[in-house]
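Handoff note, outgoing to incoming analyst
You'll be picking up this chain. Sequence as last confirmed:
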Amino acid sequence: MRIVADRYEITSPIGRGGMGEVWGGRDVRLNRPVAIKLISSGELASEKDARRRFNREGRITARLRHPGVPVVYDFGDDGDLYMVMESLPGETVGKLKDEQGALPVPWAAFIGAQVCAVLAAAHNADLIHRDVKPDNLVLCPDGTVKVIDFGVATSLGAGEFSKITQAGQIPGSARYMAPELIEGADASRASDLYTVGCTMYELLTGSRPFESRDLLREIARSQRESPPPMEGVPRELEELTLRLLAKAPDQRPDSAVSVYRSLLPWVRDPPPLHGWVAQDLSIDPAHMYSVVVSSLG
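Most recent structure output, in case you need it:
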């Protein structure tokens, strides 16, 4: 069994992120579960900027202090680059959608509002995630949503968090990418909001707005077509989603905060998500704590 940095025991694979592989593990010193992201020396050899990108991801994730962002515990080089993070219970929203299909409106709004709260924190710090999608959201058993994988994040300003992208590269996931980015424009808060629109459309309808098995066709459709009607979705929520998916950035909502406020009224009486969210959150200590804090709102 591999031990990283004489402290972190790797136990089981979790998946791949924007960079590297993610493993479940244990901090043997503190005897607590952790998640460990690794980039092997082989991957570093094939990508000259990989080390800088990985370093940047660690600093960005550590800088964002928000309940919806995993905590970074440690970072370093042990032959392979490693980043040790909070272990997240639960599964991705992508898996939830694959299992459930279109989600009930309260759950789609519940997830979208939490994502917007995280993006509000990131945007306040002049950081753009660039890769919001269901597979980069983790729904925990207490109902909280964690936004993961800041591997392709960029900054609106110069400095240590500025983007590292080679000519011809497309950062993020092309199927969720704003049309202006495909055409070469810089990432912005508005392009992050477009990814929220893609995610909301998918959660509310069960499919991506321009879904096609062919990636290039899907990208082409996103640039020239309007999304299909959202059958069975309340009109106000459909209008909000379509505004998020506007082709022109200046036609989208003006901020993650405004989208959060628009989604909040739809977060009411969510039906049970058996096997995903605990049945009685009233006795969950973290939920109890958040209820007290929310009373100040």
